[in-house]
Design goal:
Number of domains: 2
Strand order of the largest sheet: 11-2-1-15-18
Strand content: 15-25%
CATH topology of the largest domain: FAD/NAD(P)-binding domain
Structural class: alpha/beta
CATH architecture of the largest domain: 3-Layer(bba) Sandwich
Number of strands: 18
Shape: globular
Mean pLDDT: 90
CATH class of the largest domain: Alpha Beta
CATH superfamily of the largest domain: FAD/NAD(P)-binding domain
Length: about 450
């Protein structure tokens, strides 16, 4: 399929009812809603709760294992593995999904950057000092790219705060040949310092007085330092002004390192994308569980949501299922080895065999993960519609995206967010008839 990126110029005609219902509020669900809004659709997003951005680092992994050009690696892999979600979505959809994500993130004041000079992955430190290689990251994290670092990196922690231990990260970075040292700063006196969550500390950084106390403690202790890494708590509502202010006042490039959940970068992103969707006229319902669907043959006409002790019915022309995998309850299991998709009762691909013992292997940290995490999911056709055992789509207007799909392990494959962005983009464009080779149910404006 030819897939030029939709820059918002290809839009559907206005309709009276809801064009698209998105079920799920992880990255794929949020971006499916964004893509649909950009295409002029009337959108309702429904989710039982927030998805993985709340617990993941906040960067975008497209193909972590790529040593050179990330895009070329994805193109090659998609061509060789047509059943993989990248094969189903296509590398072009990944590119368009990433571009759309960068555009909306920039629009909401949370720019995401990548290495500009060569298209390779960033090299970013985790809280343990391991090096991860996402394609792009929030600017505060991207500032911490260690690829070309030649001088010392200073990692900063806070006395009495248990969610980040800089010396641990420093020891592991040194073992990899990176010059690094640690420093502990004092927090303002708090009644329950040990119980501070990352979001609590982030709110402190929103305060000018708190930032000033950090600057005073650091300013004269950065000689010979190239970059300064903080836990990813540099502001909840004002991260970019806080980041810029600290860098300017300390006269060193400041960056963020992911710490324990809840993920402050994920909270920032979810909050701002939700506000953006609401401003664009979308309906966003978080905390409402879709309990069943209303179907007629191979067509879904509505879903029912349980709220306040009764059922509400919501109709739409198209449905995007972004409920996640086993980790997120998008697929459910029981003690006797059954696996099922709870919203529409869609067929679930499962590991070979009828017993749960077939789900796992003896080695906990297997390179390619366990069968239950690699195999389990929904099989889809080239339009991302879930298919049955006969290979035909179960419903003509239901699309599955993100980690709900079968045939990959988002963690060990190092492509979680890339799959989410690619499939969210493609599903919406297909659902709204915006492909050149898709029967035009929508006209360009």
């Amino acid at each position: 399929m030819d897939l030029p990126c939709n820059d918002g110029t290809r839009r559907i005609k206005a309709a009276n009812g809801t064009d698209v219902i998105v079920i799920g509020a992880g990255l794929s669900g949020l971006m499916a809603a964004v893509n649909a809004v950009n295409a002029g659709a009337k959108v309702r997003l429904i989710a039982q709760g927030w998805g993985q951005p709340m617990i993941t680092p906040g960067w975008i992994s497209v193909c972590d294992r790529a040593n050179d050009d990330v895009i070329a690696e994805v193109r090659g892999y998609a061509a060789m593995h047509p059943e993989h979600p990248y094969g189903r979505a296509g590398a072009d959809a990944m590119l368009c999904g990433v571009q759309t994500f960068q555009d909306v993130a920039r629009a909401v004041g949370l720019p995401y950057d990548m290495r500009k000079k060569d298209g390779h992955n960033l090299h970013l430190s985790t809280a343990l000092g391991a090096i991860q290689r996402p394609m792009l990251a929030p600017r505060g994290m991207a500032n911490g790219d260690l690829t070309d670092v030649t001088e010392t990196v200073l990692l900063v922690g806070f006395n009495g705060w248990r969610d980040f231990y800089p010396q641990l990260a420093v020891d592991n970075l040194r073992a990899q040949g990176i010059q690094a040292r640690a420093m502990m700063l004092d927090l303002p006196e708090q009644p329950h310092t040990w119980d501070q969550w990352p979001v609590d500390l982030a709110r402190m950084f929103d305060s000018a007085d708190f930032c000033a106390s950090v600057i005073r403690q650091l300013r004269r202790k950065v000689k010979g330092v190239e970059k300064i890494g903080f836990p990813a708590v540099l502001g909840l509502e004002r991260p970019m002004p806080v980041l810029d202010h600290l860098s300017e006042q300390i006269a060193r490039l400041v960056f963020e390192i992911p710490t324990l959940p809840p993920s402050v970068p994920g909270v920032r992103l979810c909050n701002r994308l939700r506000r953006w969707l609401l401003r664009q006229g979308a309906r966003v319902q978080i905390g409402h569980r879709v309990v069943r669907s209303i179907t007629d043959g191979n067509h879904c006409s509505a879903v029912q949501v349980k709220a306040l002790g009764h059922l509400n019915t919501f109709s739409a022309d198209q449905f995007i299922l972004a409920t996640g995998d086993l980790y997120n309850a998008g697929i459910q299991s029981d003690e006797i080895g059954r696996l099922w998709e709870p919203v529409l009762g869609l067929p679930v691909e499962a590991p070979d065999g009828d017993e749960r013992e077939n789900w796992y292997r003896d080695n906990l940290l297997r390179r390619r993960g366990h069968p239950v995490h690699r195999v389990t999911g929904l099989r889809v056709d080239e339009k991302l519609r879930p298919v049955g055992v006969n290979g035909e789509p179960v419903y003509d207007n239901v699309y599955a995206v993100g980690s709900l799909l079968a045939g990959f392990n988002p963690i060990t494959d190092g492509c979680a967010e890339g799959i989410q962005l690619a499939t969210a983009y493609k599903a919406v464009q297909v659902a709204l008839g915006l492909y050149e080779d898709t029967p035009a149910k929508a006209a360009k404006k």
